[in-house]
Amino acid sequence: MRRYPLDRMSSTPDRDQSSGQDSGLTYAGAGVDIGEGDRFVEIIQQHVRRTHGPRVIHNPFGFAGLFRLDYDESLFRKNYREPVLVACADGVGSKIKLAVDLDRYETIGVDLVAMNVNDLIVQGAEPLFFLDYIACGKLVPERMEKIVAGIAGACRFCRCAILGGETAEMPDVYSADELDLAGFSVGVAELGRVMDPSRVEPGDVVIGLESDGVHSNGFSLVHRILESSDLDPTRIYPELDEHKTLGEVLLAPTRLYARPLVRVMKNYTVKKVITGMAHITGGGLAGNLERALHAKIDAVIDRSAWNTHPVFPFLQEHGNVAPEEMDRVFNMGIGFCMIVRESFAASIQKQLLRLGERPVVIGRIERGSGQVVLSEA
Question: Cα separation of 117 and 88, whole Å?
Fold first, then answer.
């Protein structure tokens, strides 16, 4: 095991590595290279420290990270009178398999951060810090650095500090090329502004934020489609993208919605004009948006309101996947939903556009029974 975002941990090498004498079985002989772990720690420090602000407390050789909640206490109290910590954990699923197969690791760390911070903001929380866990069969520092660089870049974008992490080299569990990633994020929200489905009312508007593709859900089905068809991930398919290979399109990272949404939420600290949110992950738009509804309303969604990302009809055609299954598994072009009061919908759309998002009004809230109704206008 190697804990890395904190300062470099000391380790005791096997006797045969330090003295040259034969001491029988060794950790290195079992497939775990402590020296490579130490080298990895040194390599990634530059990426990790770039995510640190004044709230992170320097803790050399610590076994856990330290983060101040009372930094600039007067400002903190102004923003949060009843602060609530919000936490979540998630991974990137089998998308990591495609990254390994294509030897492309630059964006998978972005996915890891996005899958966590996008869930945090659903509750109305501002991300504070992030931790990651990387498991592998063989530690290759240069490969791991690309992953951590992606994590660090995403954390900087979201103004979220990397506070700790763990890399586990387990040759008995994973083959030499196998990897798995998990992330953990903690944020803060004002108690009175934590999202509550009971606030959603008939007449509210559903704004969808477009996705950048498959994001990080449904890749078990993606792998089956690739296996059952003659699709080549290293080939360019012009009908999909004239400049990127299929693999590059599929590896496009999950969009980071946290930073723009936090900016928008801070513009409404008195009026509760944002009544619900949903991160569209496994289960599709209907399965996730339902979680923002109570039992006396429906969200009626107009399927023709947005342009479906081209990767979805492409996968559907080559995999002969039923439309209902596509809707159940993939985001189909909408990566995040906001439910807002109708009189504020236009203003919120304009703010999101200025912040680089692609917002579309995709539906309305009506009286019902807690369901999402997908229709074609």
Answer: 8
Tokens of 271: 């009026």
CB 183 within 8 A of CB 116: yes
> 3-state class of 246 per DSSP?
helix
Residue 175 and residue 41 in one domain = yes
Angle CA(161)–CA(162)–CA(164) in degrees, nearest 5?
140
Higher per-residue pLDDT: 305 or 44: 305
Structure tokens at 177: 């090329």
Query: Could you give the count of Cα atoms lying within 13 Å of 5 in the half-sphere of its Cβ?
Result: 28
pLDDT at position 35, please? 66
Q: Are 279 and 336 in contact (CB under 8 A)?
A: yes
For 255-305, the pLDDT digits (tens) are 999 999 999 999 998 899 999 999 999 999 999 999 999 999 999 999 999
Based on the fold, state whether residues 276 and 189 are members of the same structural domain: no
Shared domain check, 164 and 73 = yes
Q: Which residue has the tokens 């069969």?
A: 137
How far is residue 275's CA from residue 348's CA, in Å, rounded to a whole number?
13
Count how many domains the chain has.
Answer: 2
Could you give the CA distance from residue 224 to residue 197 in angstroms, rounded to a whole number?
36
Task: Answer yes or no: are the C-beta atoms of 36 and 141 closer than 8 Å.
Answer: yes
Q: Are residues 42 and 128 in the same domain?
A: yes
Query: Mean pLDDT across the stretch 342-357?
Result: 98
Contact 53, 154 (CB under 8 A): no
Bridge partners of residue 136, in order along the sequence: 169, 179
Range of the domain at 314: 197-375
Residue 19 lies in a domain: yes
Tokens (6 digits) for 210: 């477009």
Distance CA(103)–CA(111), nearest Å, equals 16
For residue 7, tell me if it sits in a domain.
no
Check whether residue 50 and residue 124 sit in a common domain: yes
Residue type (1 letter), 340:
V
